Amino acid sequence: MRQLELERPTKIKRKFGMTLREKRIKRVAYLFVLPAVLFFLAMNAYPLVTVLWDSFQYKNLMNKALSGWAGLANYTEVIHNEYFRKALWNTVVWTVLSVAGEYVLGLISAFALNQKIKGRTVFRAIIIVPWVVPIVVAGLTWTWMLTPDYGIINLWLVKLHILDEPVYWLGELDTALLTVVFVNIWRSFPFFTISLLAGLQSVSRDIVEAAAIDGAGVRKRFFYIVLPQLKTVSLTMIFIHVIWTAINFDFIWVMTEGGPLYSSETLPIMIYRYAMQDYNFGNASALASLMLGFMMACFVIYYMMTVKKNRR
Q1: What global pTM score does this model have?
Q2: 123 falls in which pLDDT band (50, 70, 90)?
Q3: In this structure, is residue 144 part of a structural domain?
């Protein structure tokens, strides 16, 4: 008898669909989600659609007479710009070197902080300091430290006889971009450190110790046991930071403004020049759309790799 009473609501639900209570709960859930949806539409979807639409329009505040549908003219003009290839190459160098340096330094420091050493908690707290420093503060501080006249970096290098005379690190064509990359690595590697350190906590010490007993050296234990277990964390962090770094504007603008002679100009700096200096929002939107397409392609590739991996 009791079993029939328990089965009756299920049969009614199958026959008439959701109960009134479930419908009420669903409506309340929609009401809670609605503010987030409206915020997303106002802050993300609308600007994104506007940028895509403007990329196909002639929109130059310095030449109001030129307006209307442009088709692919903005994209063509951007790609054939004399500084586009240089900015594209600088973006690749900036992104690859930054992410590679952050990962390697983060991995080394994570392994060091995972060891049982005295004061480990203090070191773990200190290492996060560069990451919490605002980009503008970090950029200006390093700019002052690297100046040839009174910068402490040049002073130390000269006193240690590493350099014969001070070097204008941010003012030379060959060193400007690499110097900003170095500063970016210094600021961002703690994020990799904390994430990889969390991943190391999940690595079974029993397996590592068993491998050591079987005769596996430090190198083999690292490459065949520890590193494979950090693969998911590593790929996720690298993917996120490739996007963050490629679209980063603040650091380079604060330290070099893309100079000297466009030697450190990246695509985000180029977008800023189009929009805020030339007031050509059509070209700025076109270049931003190209970068958006690249980011979406990266996401699709990463997603397909993840799905393929989970199916195995």
Answers
A1: 0.82
A2: confident
A3: yes
